[in-house]
Amino acid sequence: MSSRDFLFELGAEELPPKALKGLADSLLASVKKGLADAGLSYSNARHYAAPRRLAVLVEGLATEQADRVVSVDGPPVKAAFGADGQPTPAALGFAKKNGVDIAELDRSGEKLRFRKEVKGQTTVALLPGIFETALKELPIAKRMRWGSSRIEFVRPVKWLVMLFDDEVVPAEILGLTSGRLSYGHRFHHPAAVTISTPAAYAETLRGAHVIADFAERQHSVQTQVQALAAKEGGVALMPEALLEEVTALVEYPVPLVCSFEERFLAVPQEALISTMQDNQKYFCLVDAQGKLIARFITVANIDSPSPEKIVAGNEKVVRPRLTDAEFFFKQDKKVTLESRNERLKTVVFQAELGSVYEKAERVAALAALIAEKIGGNVEWARRAGILSKADLASEMVGEFPELQGIAGFHYATHDGEAVEVAEALNEQYQPRFAGDQLPGNKTGQAVALADKLDSLTGIFGIGQPPTGSRDPFALRRAAIGLLRIAIERNLPLDLPELIAFAAQQQGGKLSNKTVEADVFEFLLGRYRAMYEEQGIAPDVIQAVQVCRPRVAADFDQRVKAVAHFRALPEAASLAAANKRVSNILAKEPVESLGGDINAALLSESAEQQLAAALQTISADVEPLFAAGDYTAALTQLARLREPVDVFFESVMVNVDKEEVRRNRLNLLWQLRQLFLRVADVSQLQA
Amino acid sequence: MSTVQQQPDVSTFQGLILALQNYWAAQGCVVIQPYDMEMGAGTFHTATFLRAIGPETWNAAYVQPSRRPADGRYGENPNRLQHYYQFQVVLKPNPPNIQELYLDSLRLLGLDPTVHDIRFVEDNWESPTLGAWGLGWEIWLNGMEVTQFTYFQQVGGVECYPVTGEITYGLERLAMYIQGVNSVYDLTWTNGPFGKVTYGDVFHQNEVEMSTYNFEHANVPELFKLFDFYEAESVRLMKEKLPLPAYEFVLKASHTFNLLDARRAISVTARQGYILRVRTLARNIAQSYFDARARLGFPLAPAALREEVLAKWKENAE
Predict the structure, then answer these.
(1) What is the ipTM of this complex?
(2) Which of B94, B113, B141 sits opposite A313 (nearest CB)?
């Protein structure tokens, strides 16, 4: 079958930069699906995306669909004809529906069948529909209208190119008629450019000052910026999202180095970076120690004959912003951080849960308790707790909300608070996102845990737990952060005990009477999301969850042990045996289980051997359990495989003689209890 | 000797205004004068807020003094003012080349986009008090935001059909860039035969005194009473089917709210309630204005649009 290249380009007014790449990805995915659904083969499909265009290039696209046979089944042949051989109404109806005479239907099979040859359509005829659907499916938060038109899109659309090799594919999409005219750079090449063939697209636009390929443009921004940064003796901070946004803001990237006055470096650099990145989309430069230097890089969209004008303009913009940050910093330092708590007494944390200051008091008490349990400094923890929200009332955080914690750290340091207390004010918010670092010192760990536990308990307590996609207090993230700290810092904390303390501190504010159980259950549920991200199989997590360990670090040890055990050759057989044992025991009343094994009643050699093995191995694993070495314990327990297998091959549990039956149940119960000290391995899938 | 300057001198503040005014007049806009009441932005002028409603053609340009009491800095901050100027252009329906028209106005001011880095950066506009929203951009001139550009989608809760394109130039910022000064007070307002006059000469004392009033002397208990009164008047006038006078009372209520806000007299929780009250008024007026224009048969609308929108209006009325 013959094939050709196809190009689609939609021209628009400047598209939203944060959404651009997603729009292009989504368009391409929809088009690929549309082509697949239409049975059109191609060798390669890719997108282009720039501020004023979304494009898709499909290489080696089949020129038409293959012919195909459509077959539709109707009523059973038996029900299609009466005793007299005349067609029944059902058969006539089926024939009519398909627009044929009854004689033309195939009656050789069990059911009446209508078969029809369908001629494949040409690709040219199919493409407009495929793209129309793909554009409709784009994930656009808010579509807009313009002029007197009822058409809707992200921004007003301007031109449409649809080329199948060198021929225009006739189409009307979003009110535009397809053609072969595109447009180059808004300012460097405002005239129309003719696209001769799809293959020539990218190079034609390059000639018109547009780098249409998103990835190429992004790479160009990155390498040019870093090269300029190196010349300044620094490294550019290039967060992924910012790099992507800047790439989406230019058709033709020209980075330029700008400067600001050295005196601003006295301001916490996070504030300067924040305003330069978020408001101005600049790349900030740091030295080898990560310290900000008085330079930044802006990426212009033109190759100006007077770049110094662009540099001067940007430097002029940044000065008042940095002056603001400097002003706030100086103002804030005029009073102590602690004195700001006064204002927090009137700021509501949550209507039912009191003021932000009251929250700080609760965090302080809880942090002190945690510090005591993890061998931290109780007084520092209490102090950091009571100061933990004070910076929210500062001018700096009022202006730059993302500086909460960081501002607190600087002001506490300025006030001469203990280093660990100051650091804790920032560390309380860690981890801020998946994969973020955790609090380093014990005071920070105590406050971070206390803050999260207080929020979880309070919000669950007033009956507003996360539901579905709604999690306005980010409790899922808080819970995972809490578990990560407890696990990765290996903290000996009994979660239900801490939850109980947190709930008790809320006094009578909590309407939810099962809050403690609910929060613990919620935490148990979070393990799954956390471990699945680490590639741990769900059944391994499930096996441990069933045992409801109270200490997060203990949960972690067990998960690692079970994951290790699962890979052992004995695992499958022991998992099956545990399942079998569990099923047998489940039929017995709980209170009847758990008796001692009477050696005298063990008549068969297989049960004697199992009992003996249980006894030896129990003794071997006891010290391992005590040391929390679950991996070694399970490795020991794996030795039970042979005696267990032999037992089930040759011993019948449910015998008539009740004494013997009871004794065998006791044997199995002990076996099961031994495994349950680590996990319910019966949950493991083969 | 008396000469009339043909080309406004854009290196002065008033020259900048004259240049923009001439340019948009030449494009066919109605050059209208500022609304003579306190308002937070050019959008509140009836030439935008009400004219954006309904199918009638409307193209206008004007300067609007804008008051934001909370932004005052006693004349001490070189970039912040409680009273400043916006140059507002509204085009309905927006022509397809509206971006080009705007860029040509910058060229006229001497800002060549192949020399200066000019960018359309996504910025979606929403006015909670006016029940209005639109999509568009802020326009960056070498990194500085100098203009807001919005395609209105809804005003006073009424769908905008056709769409009004709104261009709002920040005159002081633009002038500071063109004149190369770092303080708004150093802007040259004019430099003619009577000598040089700066923005500071014209407005500095006003900023000091008005900041003092806004932050320290505005009469809070009376302002609360006034807010209630203006709201009641607006509701009363609406019952009389007088949307234009009713709208003036919304403007008064809105400014009163801004003054109370500057005095921090409205708590965070109460704030939302006041915004909602203004919005409710604005919504009722928008609908009432639409109905009033419909009763007049949308005289300024092109025939086809008039028929379409009128037919739908009658259908809804039944």
Answers:
(1) 0.94
(2) B141
